[in-house]
Amino acid sequence: MNMNYEITGATKLTALLGSPVAHSISPQMHNEAFRQLGLDYVYLAFDVKPEDLKTTVAGLNAAGICGFNLTMPLKVHILPLLDELTPAARLAGAVNTVIVKNHRLTGHTTDGAGYMRSISDEGHNIIGKKMTLLGAGGAASAICVQAALDGVSAIDMFKRKKDSWDKTEEFCSRTAAETGCTIRLRDIGRDYLLAESISESAILTNATSVGMAPDCTSSPIPDASMLRRDLIVSDIIYNPRETLLLKQARAQGCTCLNGLYMLLYQGAESFQCWTGQEMPVELIKEKYFSQEP
Questions:
Q1: Does the first or last residue of the chain, that is N or C, have fewer Cβ atoms within 10 Å of its Cβ?
Q2: Catalytic annotation present for 75
């Protein structure tokens, strides 16, 4: 461990781009990992709106950044700015990690792998079982792809029926064809379809921003009675630690998981992409992560 960790003239830059980002614990997580391993890197967070992404990425690339993460709402907006995609990112149609080598930008997604590892880390096995997935954005797509690749038997993806419906339906069909998982797109506005899907599923996953701070009074489900005691309820939001959905689930006796461990493990995969080294996840987990609200 480098006890004299400090910024130098040779320090390599990594970053988080998104909006909002002030709440993120990614800078603490990555910078502590750099310190523990004695790596001359730093990780900063930049609040970037979609309309400013192109100029921001061009500037960071010109300045020699070696990689960066993307969070909402930029995981799809980054796609036209990249030179290539990894197979997982291509299938998901979303990117949360960019690797920069010789000023070429490669888009990758670690969200899905981080999510699936967070579930197994808590001792739950959802392989061969059904998932109800709320949302169809970048994180939801990545989770859908990785869950299908890992062997979840069926996924019902719920979203609002609007202009992007056909594009999402094509994503579901393509992912199903390439993975062998049964994937259906469903209208989240039809409560009976949602209730039916949840009743058949081992896990309900909220991959929308509904319930995220500062709007902590909303839930993506219309009725808590849809939740049953033996259901795993997972929310990828970690601010607040316990969303309204998780409060509803806890009251119904469900197993509840927030988004902290997904953040940890997707971050660990990004860390390895940039540095070639394993993040000391147990140390980082102990210092910064708790599933308690």
A1: N
A2: yes
